[in-house]
């Protein structure tokens, strides 16, 4: 009897598992398979090299440069973005803001703009020959504002990403705040808690889960950084190298260098890194929640 | 309760993280297949007669190209040969096109019969055996129809892998309005060019003699013009020397401009660039003979201001290089290579050339380059100057003996990583060229060549 039930279960789960295996496990398996070989783009065929590609990635200065860059990006940009999103969510939720609905939509709107369009638009604003940056320089009588130059580039990209995703994260926080039962606020008010006290004692604890989620998504997003630098590259080809971020490195290895095996290795190593860091944040986040 | 909820979120998060990681891997996995399909042994044998027979028999072929004249040429060809159907596909411009082409070659199926290939990319496809040697159809008899430089460009090793479509002998395009305003004379030598650059920038710090933020195609052409031959390929063995006399000659002039901040860093083909060409910010462009068409359509504000002069040289003797230009090649995967070859012959050695010329292209065929109505045609955009007198003159003075790397497309893709850094830090281009060379030697050795450098 129990066996038959088990079989029935598989019938129900089967369709999902098939699709899951095809679209999820197979690509990962194939990438791992690729990463164990070395295929010469011109002469000579495919050779099994075991873990050589992995050893090479770990010794690869370009890989570490790109990984370090997204890590720096992560450490600065994610807290700024989430901080802004949190402030906005608290402000909109506070019921003291006039036109809260308008602000909610207005903040969220950049997220609805296709990423490529957003970057093209910002690229135009950043232009120091004809763009907004040029106008600023003209106004100030300097040429100090150069968003597309070497040391400015990463902050410039961070600015675009923040602009794109503040609204999205705000919405996550805001919806978490909406689930707080009104009784809690009433109880707080009866106990004589002010606005700040309410935020610290009720709202922030209620938000903890959402903050952990948003942080993990942002970490993944940072490690996956690709669109913004890849498009800005046409405007600043010397500043943004082909290995500016790990994803760009993997992409260019594949499509410019035909180094598919090495590219797969970079992607896997980066995927593992991302998983580890996301997992650590998750562990810390949930422990504090207890 | 809370704990439970947290746990399931947690699982979902890990799953989501893995999913996103997986999606990035799919991208990688798509581009690859084990069967490379580039074995050089399965050589189809053809004959000159087979080409005409294939045209008579008719059939269907696929053609990938991004040239502006491609659609018109296909239409004209199908009209002339109603029993041949050509599926014209614009698979993207430049790298997009090559990526797709490379993928179909790797996959062993899906490649077009005929593809546009730039001269600089030809060895990359010809040497691993992805293209058909057109000598089997007797196409080597057409040699005299083309300029020596383009004829050399469609060869890789001994093989003939296409017929030249256009050419881009370099000339100096200059903004006469700016030159007149600042009392500059058209430079005959690069020394004079550098001096003009200094004078202009001193008079107006917002104006630059040209723009150059590091462009592989430009750099290689400039080295070519200076007499450099940095890349030599002999079968699987490649030698790279980006510090040869020609390369040094070029950097010794160009370093003065880059290090002196005399060239604008506006990247080519950006919106800012087109604007800067129109408003006098960029005073000259040493570039290929295909440029007039681009300027007429994209730099309307420059109408009447620009003129063309021969390239400045190192010793005052006329010499130039090619910049850009494409050929049409027949892929080894083609099921009907004779018909594909017939299409190539019609395109670049038949009536297709007329359609190409009508669309404003700059030809590679000597007869058309010499045609009086072509040479003496006055261009309104260039203030009534008969620009083709200069440009066809340039076509005759291209320095011989140049060849590109068999992996030039990859080389171009990492130019910004290496030489680009020298541009940015203004630290002298020789170091950058050295870094480029080192990266290219390492790559070539990994990919099956024996590279010295």
TrEMBL record, chain A:
In this protein, which residues make up the domain named ABC transmembrane type-1?
67-281
BP terms from Gene Ontology:
transmembrane transport
User: Topology relative to the membrane, per the entry?
Assistant: Multi-pass membrane protein
Q: Which InterPro entries match?
A: MetI-like, MetI-like_sf, UgpAE/MalFG_permease
- Belongs to which family? Belongs to the binding-protein-dependent transport system permease family.
- Tell me the domain of life: Bacteria
Q: Which UniProt keywords apply?
A: Cell membrane, Membrane, Transmembrane, Transmembrane helix, Transport
Q: Which residues form the signal peptide?
A: none
User: Know the name of this protein?
Assistant: Sugar ABC transporter permease
Recorded GO cellular component terms are: plasma membrane
- Its primary localisation, in coarse terms, equals membrane
Q: Which PROSITE patterns match?
A: ABC_TM1
Name the residues that span the membrane: 12-33, 70-90, 102-125, 157-177, 206-226, 260-281
Compartments in which it is found:
Cell membrane
């Amino acid at each position: 009897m129990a066996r038959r039930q088990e079989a029935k279960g598989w019938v129900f789960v089967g369709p999902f598992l098939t699709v899951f295996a095809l679209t999820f496990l197979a690509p990962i398996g194939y990438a791992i398979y690729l990463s164990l070989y070395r295929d010469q783009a011109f002469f000579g065929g495919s050779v099994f090299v075991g873990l050589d590609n992995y050893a090479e990635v770990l010794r690869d200065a370009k890989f570490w440069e790109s990984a370090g860059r997204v890590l720096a990006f992560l450490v600065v940009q994610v807290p700024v973005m989430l901080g802004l999103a949190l402030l906005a969510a608290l402000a909109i939720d506070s019921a003291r803001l006039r036109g809260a609905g308008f602000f909610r939509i207005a903040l969220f709107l950049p997220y609805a703009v296709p990423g490529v369009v957003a970057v093209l638009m910002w690229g135009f604003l950043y232009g120091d020959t004809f763009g907004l940056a040029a106008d600023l320089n003209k106004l100030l009588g300097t040429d100090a504002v150069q968003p597309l130059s070497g040391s400015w580039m990463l902050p410039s990209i961070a600015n675009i990403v923040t602009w794109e995703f503040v609204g999205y994260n705000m919405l996550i926080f805001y919806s978490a705040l909406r689930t707080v039962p009104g009784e809690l606020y009433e109880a707080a008010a009866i106990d004589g808690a002010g606005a700040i006290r309410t935020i610290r004692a009720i709202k922030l604890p209620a938000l903890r889960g959402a903050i952990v989620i948003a942080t993990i998504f942002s970490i993944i997003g940072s490690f996956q950084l690709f669109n913004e630098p890849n498009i800005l590259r046409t405007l600043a080809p010397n500043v943004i190298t082909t290995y500016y971020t790990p994803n760009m490195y993997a992409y260019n290895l594949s499509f410019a260098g035909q180094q598919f095996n090495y590219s797969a290795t970079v992607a896997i190593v980066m995927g593992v890194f991302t998983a580890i860091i996301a997992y650590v944040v998750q562990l810390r986040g949930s422990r504090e929640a207890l | 309760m809370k704990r439970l909820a947290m746990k399931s979120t947690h699982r979902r998060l890990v799953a989501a993280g893995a999913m996103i990681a997986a999606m990035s891997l799919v991208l990688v996995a798509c581009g690859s297949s084990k069967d490379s399909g580039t074995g050089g042994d399965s050589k189809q044998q053809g004959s000159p007669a087979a080409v005409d027979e294939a045209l008579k028999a008719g059939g269907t072929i696929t053609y990938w190209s991004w040239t502006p004249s491609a659609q018109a040429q296909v239409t004209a060809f199908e009209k002339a040969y109603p029993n041949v159907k050509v599926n014209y596909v614009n698979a993207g411009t430049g790298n997009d096109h090559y990526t797709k082409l490379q993928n179909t070659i790797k996959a062993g199926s899906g490649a077009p019969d005929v593809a546009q290939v730039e001269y600089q990319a030809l060895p990359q496809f010809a040497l691993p055996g992805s293209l058909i040697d057109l000598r089997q159809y007797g196409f080597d008899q057409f040699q005299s129809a083309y300029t020596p430089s383009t004829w050399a460009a469609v060869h890789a090793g001994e093989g003939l892998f296409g017929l030249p479509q256009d050419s881009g002998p370099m000339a100096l395009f200059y903004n006469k309005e700016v030159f007149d305003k600042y009392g500059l004379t058209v430079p005959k030598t690069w020394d004079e060019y550098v001096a003009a650059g200094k004078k202009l920038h001193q008079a107006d710090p917002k104006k630059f003699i040209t723009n150059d933020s590091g462009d592989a195609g430009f750099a290689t052409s400039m080295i070519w013009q200076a007499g450099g031959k940095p890349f030599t390929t002999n079968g699987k063995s490649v030698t790279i020397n980006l510090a040869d006399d020609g390369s040094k000659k070029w950097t010794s002039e160009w370093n003065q401009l880059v290090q002196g901040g005399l060239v604008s860093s506006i990247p080519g083909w950006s919106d800012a660039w087109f604007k800067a060409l129109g408003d006098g910010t960029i005073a000259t462009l040493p570039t290929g003979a295909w440029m007039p068409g681009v300027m007429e359509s994209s730099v309307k504000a420059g109408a009447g201001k620009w003129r063309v002069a021969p390239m400045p040289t190192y010793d005052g003797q006329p010499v130039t290089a090619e910049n850009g230009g494409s050929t049409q090649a027949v892929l080894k995967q083609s099921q009907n290579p004779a018909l594909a070859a017939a299409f190539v012959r019609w395109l670049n050695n038949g009536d297709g050339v007329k359609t190409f010329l009508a669309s404003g292209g700059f030809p590679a065929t000597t007869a058309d380059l010499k045609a009086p109505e072509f040479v003496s045609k006055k261009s309104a955009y260039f203030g009534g100057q008969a620009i083709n007198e200069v440009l066809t003159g340039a076509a005759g003075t291209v320095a011989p003996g140049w060849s590109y790397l068999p992996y030039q497309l990859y080389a171009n893709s990492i130019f910004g990583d290496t030489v680009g850094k020298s541009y940015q830090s203004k630290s002298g281009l020789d170091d950058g060229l050295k870094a480029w060379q080192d990266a290219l030697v390492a790559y070539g050795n990994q990919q099956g060549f024996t590279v010295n450098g």
